[in-house]
Amino acid sequence: MVLRDTATESGLSRPARGGRWLRAWQSWIPYLAGAFLLALLLYYGPRTAGVNAPVHLVVYAFSTQEEVLTQSIFPAFETAWEAETGRDLTLDGVFGPSAMLAGQINLGAPADVALFSNAHHVTYLRMGKQVRVETQSHVLGSTPMVIVTRPGNPHGLETFADLARPGLRLVHANPRTSGGGEWALLAEYGNARVAGGDPAVAAARLSAIWENVSVLSPSARSALTLFELGTGDALVTYEQDALLALERGVPLTIIRPSYTIVAEPVAVIVDRNVTRTEQPVAAAFVRYLLGDAGQQHFAHYYQRPVAGDDPSFSPLRHPFTVADLGGWPHAYREVVELLWQAEIEPSLSLQPFDVRAPAGAPSEP
To answer: Is 176:182 a contact under the CB 8 Å cutoff?
Structure first.
């Protein structure tokens, strides 16, 4: 029997080896291309949408920064960011005593950026692992600590030593919750320490001043509010807040002692809370605070700029900083803990608003 190739005989050519598989593969190309495009869409789609998605940033800030942030900086930065990126941005602020805010953030409060009244409160966040060791905080400007008294200065106050006069009634921010309270302590102690150099004299002066403290308040802002309502004869607070009160029409007199400490508030990004989407916005916000526009906003609300060369502010005769007292770790240990907390606070004869350490703030090592 002879086998014939009927396909050849009929004039039809036989497909080459593997040809049917080639045709089958070609028939699947439209489906495979569609699946590939779908995979690209699923992978890159959320990322592309994220580029244009609205951003929400939460800023925790010490109490005296409420006006400048909510009335000026927040709306200005939102507008600038949206114009540059095309993305909607919402900034929300939470305000309160600086040390207390640090404690709340350590307990899980959703702050993306924190503005503290002093750099020591950033240490709380590093100890609580909310901020990485390598993350830098940034000084936002400065404001000297001043004495606020009744109009016309009826007690003739000129220096911090005058606050120790018998019979004077002082309102004071609580150093356990308030950065302003800590700065006031360093001003009351440091003026004698820097001017005379004798720590025993400085400690005695601080103790004498605190014999006249009649009311403790959780924050610098609330202490000034109590003074506005008629409590006490004087208090030590930020120049910035005193000038804001004058602008609101509060009757008071501001005394700038010849030797006073200059408070330096700081900003820091809270690493644990900031998402990958929020991080560029948080970094841009901090840069804005340090740039010309941000510094102008702060100056308009009476905070002296980082450069320190604004002639619209009253000159200071002998300003000093926490560095002149050994830096924050040393000053906090020597003045706040060993002197005020250990020796002065136990003898206070008053009913403070709050003398507890801020919840969530780790103890010093």
So the answer is: no
Beta-carbon contacts of 352 under 8 Å, excluding residues fewer than 6 positions away, are: 174, 215, 216
pLDDT, tens digit (0-9, with 9 covering 90-100), for 69-78: 999 999 999 9
Torsion of CA 163, 168, 171, 175, to 10 degrees: 40
The amino acid occupying position 298 is F
Domains of the chain: 54-141+266-290 (3.40.190.10), 143-263+315-347 (3.40.190.10)
| pTM tops 0.85, yes or no | no
Give the CA dihedral 268, 315, 150, 221, nearest 10 degrees. -10
What are the pLDDT digits (tens) for 124-163? 999 999 999 999 999 999 999 999 999 999 999 999 999 9
Closest-CA residue to 314 (of 248, 235, 254):
254
How deeply is 34 buried, as exposed, middle or buried, from its count of CB atoms within 10 A (0-12, 13-18, 19+)?
exposed
Query: Which helix (H) or strand (E) covers residue 105, if one does?
Result: helix 98-106
Confidence of residue 311 (pLDDT cuts 50, 70, 90): confident
Angle, to 10 degrees, between the axis of helix 179-196 and the axis of helix 199-210? Answer: 140
